[in-house]
Amino acid sequence: MIRRLLIIAAVLPLVAATTNCHRAVQTAPLAAAQDSMRGIVSITGTSFEQSVMLRTDKGTIALGVNAADSAALSRMGGIDVRVFGTRELNRFRVTSFRAMTVSGAAVVDGFVRDDDGKLSIETPEGRLALGNPPAPLRNLVGARVWVGGPLATGPNQFGLIAPAAR
Predict the structure, then answer these.
(1) Is 30 part of a structural domain of the chain?
(2) Number of Cα atoms under 13 Å in the Cβ half of residue 95
(3) Which helix (DSSP H) or strand (DSSP E) does residue 115 occupy?
(4) pLDDT of 155 strictly over 80
(5) CATH number at residue 86
(6) Does 41 lie in the same domain as 92?
(7) φ, ψ for residue 3, nearest 5 deg
(8) Last residue of a domain, one of 97, 115, 147
């Protein structure tokens, strides 16, 4: 009996120290989970002070974006997008976004690539060949665009999201 008490007395400080160590780690702030929302981009305000908003089926929310994404999203007015980031009180902090539909038709969002004279759109899922791309699209190699219409045969509509990096 005394031997058991001595073992317990020796082990309890170790358990307490380990438990406190884990508690300290658990009380540290956790990184916010990635979230997403889908809606139509709306630009409000003046040329001096613009706000980028997202109209969803649940209402309108302000989008918090960095300067590069703000410029890209300002080109997306009226386009259905999915934004990724973190939801805050009355704002959604955007880390990335993707064009989904334009005028109700599905589009592909990606970068224009020239593959030995043939254009393709590079998306996170891979490259998609454009069978009959519009001629002006050839001037946008490296730019991020949305492309609508049948990719293999055309005709295709497109819009600039972000110019090619220089």
Answers:
(1) no
(2) 10
(3) strand 105-115
(4) yes
(5) 2.40.50.1010
(6) yes
(7) -65, -45
(8) 97
pTM comes to 0.74
Find out whether the peptide bond into 124 is cis, omega within 30 degrees of 0.
no
Q: At which residue do the structure tokens 């438990």 appear?
A: 19
Domain housing 47:
35-97
51-110 confidence digits (pLDDT tens):
889 999 989 989 987 777 778 888 999 999 999 999 888 889 999 999 999 999 999 999
3-state secondary structure 24-67: HHHCCCCCCCCEEEEEEEEEEECCCCEEEEEEECCEEEEEECCH
With H, G, I as helix, E, B as strand and everything else as coil, classify residue 93: strand
Whether residue 10 is predicted with pLDDT greater than 70 in this model: the reply is no
pLDDT at 131: 92
Asked if residue 148 belongs to a domain, the reply is yes
